Amino acid sequence: MKRSELIKSSLSLASLPAFSGFAAGDDWRSEVKKAIDHGIRFLQSQIKDGSWHSHPGITALCLQSLFTCPRAYNRLDGPWIRGPINYLLKTQQEDGAFFDPNSRTPTKNYNTSLAVLALATSKDEIFKPAIEKGKNFLLKIQADEGEGYEEGQDYFYGGIGYGGDLRPDLSNLNIALDALTEAGLPKDHPAYKKALVFLARCQDTEGNDQAWAKATGGFAYSPDLATNERLPTAKEADRQIVPYGSMTFAGLKSLIFCSVEKDDPRVKEAVQWINSHYSVTEHPGMGQVSLFYYYYMMARSLEVLGQKTLTLSDNRTITWTEELAKELLKRQHPDGHWVNPQPKYMEGDSVLVTAYALNALNIIYRSST
């Protein structure tokens, strides 16, 4: 069977029955693969004018889910995938950044990081020049001596921001480190050492030199109060810097990217926070807000850590891949998409959320062999 025929036969838009859980003895990975196929067919139906939402970051995230799925789609699979690839490549600027110059909020780092990550995960040699240019752009925007930052004085030192503002954060840094690592940046590159300085100021440990830090081991969005996210449940007067789920996973995988070993206290403390706050039904510290971003961060972080089980604070040992897979399959809609009823941070967008879910399921599939 030709690959184009395989796409049509394996990815049907027909409604799937409601997921009721994995039965004993089931090959649950086959159910995950079916859900991935169904989600990809939904994404295929949402391509407009050769892209998803005419947005380089969302298009890149969708392409990553196609490149890394069990079927490993690529540019040879036809115009339905070449169109988004060509759109993404056309958004790369002379300085290497990927973004829409007509956008009011170009978010250069996020778009570039997601584009580099997608192209690198395709394993296609033809994208090497674009990846290299994007990688060099990301290195250039790190807050360091080139912009006058000093390690001992500026708490933003070593971080990366959106690319247009002047306040780095862990959300931006972690996706940039993911892209740089996937693009083959040597492990001894100074960018990793600089990143560790910023990471230390985001982790809630006794070794953090910031006044807000305690000793929970979790990670916050930023060491800066004005930049930092707040708990949605906190009173308006309660301005505080707090660790929460997605940022703790983001911090953990960033430590691993920076060659921090699993037995290092920084990693062990982050894992301890995760074991104490573990959930697949909500985003720890955020409830239902940004839930699917949290799922993506969880899957990628635990994949990078190389850990298939977690021993929780109540001494239960759980297989996170199976638990997260069950939750994601429960939340998939009959036409294959996912969406968060809590729409903050763009999670009311079914294309973006479906890409988050698919990337998480792809990781689960390859991590559970």
What does this structure look like?
By secondary structure, the protein is mainly α. The chain is 47% helix and 2% strand. It contains 13 helices and 2 strands. It has helices spanning 3-10, 28-45, 56-67, 79-90, 108-121, 128-140, 170-182, 190-202, 245-257, 265-277, 291-305, 320-331, 350-367; strands at 309-311, 317-319. Strands 1-2 form a two-stranded antiparallel ribbon. A hairpin with a 5-residue loop joins strand 1 (309-311) and strand 2 (317-319). The longest helix is centred in the first third of the chain and has 18 residues, at 28-45. The relative contact order is 0.12. Residues 1-16 have low confidence and may be disordered.
The Rg value, from CA coordinates, equals 20 Å
Shape: globular
Regions with pLDDT < 50 over 5+ consecutive residues?
Answer: 1-16
Count of alpha/pi helices: 13
